[in-house]
Automatic annotation (TrEMBL):
Residue ranges of every copy of the ABC transporter domain listed in the record: 2-202
Pfam families xrefs: ABC_tran
Family as reported in the entry's similarity comment: Belongs to the ABC transporter superfamily.
Lineage: unclassified sequences, metagenomes, ecological metagenomes
InterPro entries registered for this protein in UniProt: ABC_transporter-like_ATP-bd (IPR003439), ABC_transporter_ATP-binding (IPR050763), P-loop_NTPase (IPR027417)
Organism, scientific name: marine sediment metagenome
Keyword vocabulary terms for this entry: ATP-binding, Nucleotide-binding, Transport
CDD domains registered for this protein in UniProt: ABC_DR_subfamily_A (cd03230)
Name of the protein: ABC transporter domain-containing protein
Gene Ontology molecular function: any one: ATP hydrolysis activity
């Protein structure tokens, strides 16, 4: 994850050797691509930010054939591959439609399909869900988690959409003002920030006296109430203190509907990591 304007597109362009880095080293699959720029082209494919990764006045099929041809493949060689990609990306009904007439989501799916024609082990995706509606984001996320990742490809994804990063990626690098503030598997980062936060769902509304008792005995207590129930969210240093909560509720004659342990929110984790570096 890289925050907006932190240089994520520039980073990917350097990795692809579309730009020359001002310092540092770049290795892809063990090869120094600064000394051997051709390696970057051979080892990786990319879809950059924006919607101009495809040719707008060419149809879906023509774009796929063109990008195959740029790799030295004849249509006969990749005919089955094109048909497979068209089916996977749900482009069957748009096969002869010019790219400029496709929806933004369809254009992005076509761009990713064109990158996959190259059949490299590494795929760079720069903000692949930027500007897409909710349905299109959902479809692209499923494609990245499903077929593409199952082929054993490494997907290098840049995004400031926390939901996409958490849902798609196994490992995350967070960059703030050009400095790496985290580099770890998402699962491990969430474990580091795990607190014993619990949601207690109570039947009906609770009185001010009960609220005061909770606020006196616990830190980080939040209440929310609707017509039929009340939710109490509490950060507990020790999960054994759940029994204290239950004791209060029982003493006050309050009916408990449900208890739930709340997972740490990845967006909150990011904000905490960035705040530490200021």
């Amino acid at each position: 994850w890289i925050r907006p304007c932190a240089g994520k597109t520039t980073t990917i362009k350097c990795l692809c050797r579309l730009l020359n880095p001002t310092s540092g080293k770049i290795h892809i699959d063990g090869f120094d691509v600064i000394k051997n720029p051709r390696i970057a082209y051979e080892k990786a494919a990319a879809v950059l930010e924006g919607n101009r990764n495809i040719y707008w006045r060419m149809s879906t099929k023509e774009n796929l054939k063109l990008f195959a041809g740029l790799q030295g493949y004849s249509y006969k060689q990749v005919k089955n591959k094109i048909e497979e990609l068209v089916e996977i990306f749900g482009l069957q009904g748009k096969i002869n439609t010019e790219a400029r007439f496709l929806s933004r989501g369809m254009q992005q799916k076509l761009a990713i399909a064109c990158a996959l024609i190259k059949n490299t082990k590494i795929l760079f995706l720069d903000e692949p869900t930027l500007g897409l509606d909710v349905e299109a984001i959902y479809e692209v996320r499923n494609l990245l988690k499903g077929k593409i990742s199952s082929e054993g490809k490494t997907i290098f994804l840049s995004s400031h959409n926390m939901g996409v990063v958490e849902d798609v990626c196994k490992r995350v690098i967070i960059i703030n003002h050009g400095k790496i503030v985290a580099d770890e598997e998402i699962k491990k980062i969430k474990e580091l920030f795990r607190v014993n936060t619990y949601r207690f769902e109570i039947e009906g509304k609770i009185g001010e006296q009960i609220k005061k008792e909770f606020l006196k005995r616990f830190l980080g207590v939040r209440f929310s109430t609707d017509e039929s129930k009340t939710e109490i969210i509490i950060d507990l240093k020790d999960s054994i203190r759940i029994y204290e909560v239950l004791e209060i509720l029982k003493k006050r004659g309050v009916k408990l509907i449900n208890i739930q342990n709340i997972e740490p929110d990845f967006e909150e984790i990011y904000l905490e990591l960035v705040k530490r570096e200021k």
